[in-house]
Amino acid sequence: MAAIRLGQGSREMSPAQDSAVTTRGDDAGSTVRVEADGTGGALVVLAGEVDQDCASELWDVLASALRAYPRGLVVDLAEVTFCDCACLNVLLRARLEAGVDPSRRAARFRVVNISPRVARLLELTGTGHYFRNGSGPGAHPAGDGEALG
């Protein structure tokens, strides 16, 4: 397990380890955990306040994980207590960069367990339709929109 303090400059971390944890040094306690799922993909668990102060570090983690896990990422947002537009921008960028796994004709990036705070941000910004395969308040069922074609 590797730990990196967020907010002290952008650092790329390798999610190729079985479990990688990124923590934020201030009281917000933001964390990012990347866990291989055994199928060539990974579960990314975000928790705490994810805002402009840690957006570049979050991007570094997601970009590195997308390179390391060819089947893609499932991002769990259940424990996110605050999410601003900088975080939303990182999630949208990761979704765009991830694209589609051609062997499964499925998105390589999806979110699950959308917290009420994130759901509200998606509603206010009109971006909820980009995260159709999430679950949680106001989100679509987990399987909806996953397969493409």
First-last Cα distance: 38 Å
Number of structurally distinct domains: 1
The global form is globular
Counted beta strands: 8
Helix content bin: 25-40%
Strand content: 25-35%
CATH C-level class is Alpha Beta
Q: What letter string, H or E per element, gives the SSE order?
A: EEEEHEHEEEH
Uncertain spans: 1-5, 8-13, 21-26, 135-149
Under CATH, the homologous superfamily reads: STAS domain
CATH hierarchy: architecture? 2-Layer Sandwich
**Backbone structural class:** alpha/beta
In spatial order, strands of the major sheet run 1-2-3-4-5-8
InterPro entries: MlaB-like_STAS, STAS_dom, STAS_dom_sf
Pfam families: STAS_2
Domain STAS: 40-126
Protein name: Anti-sigma factor antagonist
In summary, what is this structure?
This is Anti-sigma factor antagonist. Residues 1-30 are annotated as: Disordered. With 149 residues, this protein is of the alpha/beta class.
Textual characterization of the structure:
By secondary structure, the protein is of the alpha/beta class. It has helices at residues 55-68, 85-98, 116-125; strands at residues 2-6, 19-24, 31-36, 41-50, 72-83, 100-101, 106-107, 109-112. Strands 1-2-3-4-5-8 form a six-stranded mixed β-sheet. It is globular, with a radius of gyration of 14 Å.
Topology of this structure?
Blueprint: E1 2-6, E2 19-24, E3 31-36, E4 41-50, H1 55-68, E5 72-83, H2 85-98, E6 100-101, E7 106-107, E8 109-112, H3 116-125
Parallel strand pairs: 1-2, 4-5, 5-8
Antiparallel strand pairs: 2-3, 3-4, 6-7
Helix pairs in contact: 1-2
Task: Pick out its properties.
149 residues; alpha/beta; Transcription Regulator spoIIAA; six-stranded mixed sheet; 26% helix; 32% strand; disordered N terminus; disordered C terminus; anti-sigma factor antagonist activity; STAS_dom_sf; STAS_dom; Anti-sigma factor antagonist; MlaB-like_STAS
